[in-house]
Amino acid sequence: MHINDIIKNRRSIFPKMYTGQPVSDDIIKQLLENANWAPSHRHTEPWRFKVYTGEALARLGDKLAELYQRYTPAEKFQERKHKKIAQKPRQSSHMIAICMQRDPEESVPEWEEMCAVACAVQNIWLTAASYNVGGYWSSPGLIKREELREFLGLKPDEQCMGFFYVGHYDGAMPMSKRQPIEDKTEWVRT
Predict the structure, then answer these.
(1) Which of 91, 108, 177, 188 has the CA that lies 20 to 30 A from 72?
(2) C-alpha span between 70 and 127 (Å, rounded)
(3) 3-184: what CATH class?
């Protein structure tokens, strides 16, 4: 596919839409290799990834569900959501923890490092779309919990920015549309 088509056709494909067929580790490695070519100011390359697959997906799902139950007030707790949190990783072929390691020199503002990580994730997403592999970036509120940091084995200067779920899917792509770019652009010529 041409890059313009890949960009326009990229969609969030949710774990409930995955077929259960494993995505090859070679494709996952290519997603990460392309992520590594994202732009980063001063070449800080702040992106870090932790790839979960196999039995590790169940452990991660159980941990996320445990943290949801522990930190959700009783009046807001939903058993359906608790089960969904535990199940989503199990429905996935791979799950990638999206992490950022802050430049120790703080040579650029933190927001620029976060933007660099987001660019890396966009490269993952576009590469997945080019392989007809589904992907979905989720950033649950639980990512700030110390217990999850420990579970993920994050270093003191690292933070989790969410999870990227990966899986094969079949069926039609979800429809999407955008408002015209002309409505969001101002040309300044003089």
Answers:
(1) 91
(2) 36
(3) alpha beta
